[in-house]
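User: Predict the structure for this protein chain, please.
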Amino acid sequence: MKKVTIVAHQNHIEDIIKNIHENGLVEIIDISNEKKDIENEFKNEILNSEVNKCVNYEQRLSKLIKILTKFRKKKQGIKAFLNPDIPQTKLVEEKTQNKMFLYSDTLLNEIEKNILDYNNQLLEFDEEIKKINQDINKLNYIKYFEFDVSDISESKYLFIKTGLTNDIETLRKQIEVLDEPIFYSKQFGSRKKIQWSVIIATFIKEKEKVEKICRENITEFNFDGFLGKPNDILKSLDERLKEINKEKIQIIKLLNNLSNYYLNDLLALKEEIQIERIRMDILNNFAQTHSTYLIKGWVQEKNEDIFLATT
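Assistant: Here is the predicted structure, written as structure tokens:
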């Protein structure tokens, strides 16, 4: 390995950085701590600001790319096997840093909010679907009972609980000793996987006893916010699922269109920004006077001639 030092005029520094980055011959040495020995003051604040801008753009672009990649239309089945999608290459015009940042702002202002909003809507719909399916699962256990689920609570005179048990006989015996209890059950499953859905209603004075029995014997169901009979609620939840799926289809179509139109541009721009950030990182390791830059690094002896020819 040989240590090399390059003194470059500021008018040529961009070309030199580009060559260093593209040929990969030099391992740059961070001489930021030596800058005080070379000159009293160096202006790194602008460089750091530019690097931070690049990082911010990269993060925002990566987030959009991740979303749109999920909604890119892909070939399926035998077509995908015989004629797979080939990554597209995109020719881009070389831009100055200011033009690159301006283009990034313009593109992001145009599509970023919509993409993020659509994605958030889909996530919210998925959470709602998950909650609805959980409620449907519980309601299916008690749909055979004719009662209003809003009664599952305590009132001035009554205390009502519902849930699942694996030991109906023990539960029945404990409930029977209470004062005039009402007890309904429905069997599900068979053999070792038998369960029973149950409804227990007693006078309010038996509340503490019933709570203790339920803690020890059943998995309770909670239907806060629901009104009506189980079958009626199931119908309304099924309708809501259909509405959500229709809305999801519309949003997915919008994201498909955005993906087809913008994804390649976003990928190309992200790569441009990454290259610019790498260049700025390299430049930040150089020492600078008012008109020149000092670059230090290591190069393999076998590559010395190539390095000299390219710089």
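The beta strands are 2-9, 26-28, 158-165, 182-188, 195-203, 219-220, 287-288, 292-299.
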